[in-house]
Specification:
heterodimer, A: 362 residues, alpha/beta, Rossmann fold, 2 domains, 8-stranded mixed β-sheet, B: 314 residues, mainly alpha, MetI-like fold
């Protein structure tokens, strides 16, 4: 049994502007001790899908299943879910300054969580454990810093404190939501190293949410790429980085500095993420896609196997794109296959041609 | 912490000094000859000159200001034109009624306002929240004298649960003091608690949207603890600030409630002295009101630094 198995999760919010379809059907599994990377732009639904698991999205309309050790998180009562939070599944958030309570000492915030889930632990013991945890995540002189307030910590130290808190009860799963985005590049690398080390030490499963494929290049076992509230590509790390199939994944890889060699310029993905109230017809990515074909405008592609494993379709590598499954990878051969498909798939007066014209006019 | 406090006190003193200057100039800007008022209508020019000399009104302005300031520091605010009694004594007599009214009412309005505000915020956009909002609107738009007179009529005249009007000093009879204060407290608190309900509701709603509240929930804390220990703790800071300022301001200005319930407080004293142009008393009440506003702000600053560790260091 997988540690976490999410099946066809849908989350929407009823707002005065209309129904916001934040997540439109996501499925993934996380195995014990493994790392899943979830990648996408803001508004792709990556944070909402994980926060929904712990009931942190107030007012959301939720559909689907999320089995954690066989128990459906989405069907739990508030009290059952509260016992899971922090104890079984811990979370680390993006901005460590705003995520820590500004009026309470760092150590107290860690101790509070320990005592909430383990009522037998007294104050002194909880404080001692908070000091140990702070030391473990590399806070110097933890015995003194335990009584500091969050504003007395630097950005990196605050995130270390959040990591210490997440590990406090030795949870089976940690969800880290853009844990390094708000930090300096050098600190980012330190925090990622720390997380990797501690994850191995504690044998914790990790869901790492990021908009930057570079962040999880060393970390993730599997990667799920999301766009417009849906998964567009799902693969093991190697396949995803070397044989990306979906043009959006390819675009994300090409927008990592240094990814395509020092001589080429960074290639940003043009256009804006789609409105989740008014989604494009067909494939949600088609207005921004350089390989858009006629059917992309009208028909929505579903996740399908694109890789081969010992002559059979590799179900571990799926992509939701109308390009032929052989057209995966960053090499010239894959690019030729893509261009051929596009040449065949676009008619002169097609809707796709208008999309391309509009894109070039920008 | 000590440096912070000293800086705040010095700042308060500066504000008070500016007020004394303003009050002093006001004294001279008013057209009436103070000596004529003091000496009475039938005074001869010789008496007038004598009075003027006795009051020091023939000295140059800066000298007069210096005398005024030194007398003030000794607690001497001069004598009332109308009653010839020392202004300091008149204020001393009026102050207990005002302080009793405002401090007692503050306890009530803070308790009611915060409780209603929390209920309103945690059940935002429900029927209960809307009901509270309606009550608040009524509370804010109801003039104090209507509330006061209604309460007085129902509870003092008709039902006779509480005695009518008059201030009984607390040192004379605490029980009677309390009985006499209940209706004035409710009157003042009703209006104020409406404002504080809105303030608490807004502040708490803001805080509950903060990232650290999400962290508190993600830690597995019970919702009660999330709201009170994590949410309300932060949300109360602006409420406390407002309370300190309000209490300071109200000590010089609860005229309506004082009049309705016959409390001889600072508000009543102000109006009486204003109607007859009793300048020394006017100066006295202005100064005492300014003093309490400054004091209120000082207390807020100190309390604030205890509530928020970030203030202590800066």
């Amino acid at each position: 049994m997988s540690l976490l198995e999410v099946r066809d999760l849908k989350v929407s919010f009823d707002t005065s502007d209309g129904l916001v379809q934040a997540v439109r059907g996501v499925s993934f599994t996380v195995e014990r001790g493994k790392t899943l990377g979830i990648v996408g732009e803001s508004g792709s639904g990556k944070s909402v899908s994980t926060q929904t698991l712990l009931g942190l999205t107030a007012g959301a309309l939720i559909d689907g299943e999320a089995l954690f050790e066989g128990q459906d998180l989405l069907a739990m009562t508030d009290e059952q879910l509260r016992r899971v939070r922090g104890k079984e599944i811990a979370m680390i958030f993006q901005d460590p300054l705003s995520s820590l309570h500004p009026l309470y000492k760092v150590g107290k915030q860690i101790a509070e969580m320990i005592r909430q889930h383990e009522p037998d632990v007294n104050k002194a013991q909880a404080r001692k454990r908070a000091i140990e945890l702070l030391g473990m995540v590399g806070i110097p002189e933890p015995g003194q810093r335990v009584d500091d307030y969050p504003h007395q910590f630097s950005g990196g130290m605050r995130q270390r404190a959040m990591i210490a808190m997440s590990l406090a009860l030795n949870p089976k799963l940690i969800v880290a939501d853009e844990p390094t985005t708000a930090l300096d590049a050098t600190v980012q690398a330190q925090i990622l190293d720390l997380m990797l080390r501690l994850q191995r030490e504690f044998d914790t499963a990790l869901i790492m949410i990021t908009h930057d494929l570079g962040v999880i290049a060393d970390l993730a076992d599997d990667v799920l790429v999301m766009y417009g509230g849906k998964p567009v590509e799902h693969a093991d790390r190697r396949s995803l980085y070397y044989r990306p199939h979906h043009p959006y994944t390819k675009g994300l890889l090409e927008s990592i500095p240094g990814s395509t060699g020092a001589k080429t310029r960074l290639k940003p993905i043009g256009g804006q993420p789609p409105s989740l109230i008014n989604l494009p017809t067909g494939c949600a990515f088609h207005p921004r896609c350089e390989y858009v074909m006629d059917r992309c405008v009208t028909e929505e592609p579903l996740l399908a196997a694109v890789g081969d494993k010992d002559g059979f379709p590799d179900l571990g590598h799926t992509s939701a794109c109308w390009l032929p499954k052989e057209a995966a990878g960053l090499d010239a051969e894959a690019e030729n296959l893509r261009q051929e498909a596009v040449a065949l798939g676009r008619s002169a007066d097609s809707p796709a041609a208008t999309v391309v014209d509009a894109g070039e006019a920008q | 912490m000590l440096r912070f406090l000293i800086r705040r006190i010095l700042f308060g003193i500066l504000v008070l000094w500016i007020v004394t200057l303003g009050v002093f100039l006001l004294f001279f800007a008013t057209s009436d000859d103070p000596a004529a008022r003091f000496a009475g209508k039938s005074a001869t020019p010789a008496t007038l000159a004598l009075v003027r000399h006795r009051l020091g009104l023939d000295d140059p302005l800066p000298v007069q200001y210096w005398h005024f300031l030194t007398r003030l520091l000794r607690g001497d605010l001069g004598y009332s034109f109308a009653t010839q009694s020392p202004v300091t004594d008149m204020i001393k007599q009026a102050l207990p009624a005002s302080l009793s009214l405002i401090l007692g009412a503050a306890v009530l309005w803070l308790a009611a306002g915060i409780v209603a505000g929390v209920i309103s915020a945690t059940r935002a956009r429900t029927l209960l929240d809307r009901g509270i909002t309606l009550a608040v609107l009524l509370g804010i738009s109801m003039p104090a004298f209507i509330v006061g007179l209604t309460l007085s009529y129902v509870f003092a005249v008709k039902l006779q649960i509480f005695p009518q009007t008059q201030y009984v000093p607390i040192q004379n009879n605490p029980l009677q003091w309390f009985e006499h204060m209940v209706l004035p407290w409710i009157t003042l608190a009703l209006l104020q608690s409406a404002i504080y309900t809105r303030l608490t509701r807004g502040s708490l709603l803001d805080v509950l949207g903060e990232d650290y509240i999400r962290t508190a929930r993600a830690k597995g804390l019970p919702e009660r603890r999330v709201i009170y220990r994590h949410g309300l703790r932060s949300a109360l800071t602006p409420v406390v600030t407002q309370a300190g300022v309000d209490i300071g301001v109200l000590i010089g200005g609860t005229l309506v409630t004082e009049s309705v319930f016959g409390l001889q407080g600072i508000g009543q004293l102000t109006v009486q002295s204003l109607t007859i142009g009793d300048l020394p008393v006017i100066m006295g009440v202005v100064l005492i009101a300014a003093f309490f506003v400054v004091l209120g702000n000082l207390v807020v600053d100190v309390v604030y630094s205890f509530l928020d560790p970030r203030v202590r260091l800066s």
